[in-house]
Amino acid sequence: MKNKENKSHFASISREKYKKNNSREKKGDNKFIKFGEDNQFPSYLIHLYNNSSIHASCVNAIVEAIKGEGLVTENEDILKEANRTEESWTEIYNKLAVDYKLFGGFALEVIWSRDRSRIAEVYHIDFSYVRAGEKNYKGQCEQYYISDEWRGLYTYGSVMDGEIASLPTFDPSKREEEPKQIYYHNPYRPGQKYYPLPDYMGATKVIDLDGEVDNFHINNIQNGLAPSLAITTFTNANDDERNAIENMLRMQYQGTDNAGSMLYMDVDDPVNAPQITPISSNGNDTYYTTVNDMVMQKILTAHRITSPALLGIKENTGLGNNADELETAWNLFLNAVVLPYQQDILGVLEYLLGKQVNEEVQVGVVQKNPLYEDDDNEIDVVTSKEATIEEDADLQDKVDEGSESPNELEIGIQ
After folding, report:
1. Cα dist from 169 to 39, 107, 175, 405, whole Å
2. Among residues 97, 67, 101, 82, which one has the least CA distance to residue 366?
3. Residues 6 or more apart from 299 whose CB is under 8 A from it?
4. What confidence tens digit (pLDDT) does each residue in 156-199 have?
5. Cβ atoms of residues 382 and 392 within 8 Å
6. Where do the structural domains in the chain lie, given as residue ranges?
7. Distance, CA of 187 to CA of 183 (rounded, Å)
8. How much is the pTM?
9. What's the pLDDT score for residue 396?
């Protein structure tokens, strides 16, 4: 007697694995260095910013703190126009604050005057548009390429010379032959030769997860949440009939608009009645709550934000009895996170402004203090690391004169 054929079948169901968008610096067939495997790493950072609410809140809070209440200097007139479009230096500073936090660096186009005696204009360049040229034998990058269409340009292979706009690296000694240059601010980062990385780089996977969790929930809501019923029919229907039954069930049951509605079915015989099996919850609600808390904590840690209350996120302990703790967290946030950004940018602006007016310039930014808004509190003015006590005193007098009320001014000297 022959054994009955075994129709059982087992197979491994492959799952899609997470592929991290790396920041690898890669030489290609062109003179520029690819930023990321597909040369799209800056676009990936923008994607993270646009798709994670927690990450975006952290970036926005830090950027707003970096901006402060605007730039101040002894001679306010020099801050009014950075270029012929009448863009002020404060507007330039605000754009640099966004790029520095989001990408870890920033870029400026510097244009020398016709007689090359001074800097005539300075323009902000979107940092995501810039790619570095190969370094020379001295380890210096002499050229940067600029385009807002890197994806399209690289899709079809090599880009021929001359098709991408480029600027030579900022060098005052070469201003005669190179009147237009690019100032590319690239802080040291271990392992990076050409491009900087943002300080939250270690949390990019968690930031991705935040966006994916939101995507998971919205798709569950749109498709009737996670399966709560298993419906088995016994009609032995053909493909068209099964599609018709499936479409009927989907129209009657799926989506947020059908939540709580009654499901009605009519069959020709009780034998053909569908089998409806409830699927009990397996604790997913608690699981995703835990994941959400973990994601939030890791993103806040990556941005070095010690208290969620700084972002307007209410803690379980409440704010009523924690005024001192919140003030301590704000001061720590300013000094440990915001101040280094401000001083780096101010140092660059002072250098370029000095080349524009041909004299030493001291620039400060009025620090924000959202915890107190009355006129009796001190006004902090942050200056660059190169500030001297004499220059700070002059700046103090200038800001004090411009104040509507006799506030006490405290200069942040580092």
Report:
1. 21, 10, 11, 45
2. 67
3. 52, 54, 55, 58, 200, 203, 206, 207, 210
4. 445 555 578 899 999 999 999 999 999 999 999 998 999 999 99
5. no
6. 25-199
7. 12
8. 0.77
9. 56
Q: What's the pLDDT band for 290 if we cut at 50, 70, 90?
A: confident
For residue 234, give both structure tokens: 């016994």
Q: Please report where in the chains the tokens 């994916």 appear, as a residue.
A: 212
CA dist 132 and 34 (Å) reads 8
| Nearest CA-CA partner of 200 in 11, 61, 8 | 61
Asked if 291 contacts 213 with a C-beta cutoff of 8 angstroms, the reply is yes
| Residue in the structure block whose two tokens are 């004090």 | 400
Tokens 């690019």 belong to residue: 182
| HEC secondary structure over the chain | CCCCCCCCCCCCCCCCCCCCCCCCEEECCCCEEEECCCCCHHHHHHHHHHHCHHHHHHHHHHHHHHHCCCEEECCHHHHCCCCCCCCCHHHHHHHHHHHHHHHCCEEEEEEECCCCCCEEEEEEECHHHEEEECECCCCCECEEEECCCHHHHHHCCCCCCCCCEEEEECCHHHCCCCCEEEEEECCCCCCCCCCCCCCCHHHHHHHHHHHHHHHHHHHHHHCCCCCCEEEECCCCCCHHHHHHHHHHHHHHHCCHHHCCCCCCCCCCCHHHCCEEEECCCCCHHHHHHHHHHHHHHHHHHHCCCCCHHHHCCCCCCCCCCCHHHHHHHHHHHHHHHHHHHHHHHHHHHHHHHHHHHCCCCCEEEECCCCCCCCCCCCEEEEECCCCCHHHHHHHHHHHHHHCCCCCCEEEECC
What letter represents residue 340's amino acid? P
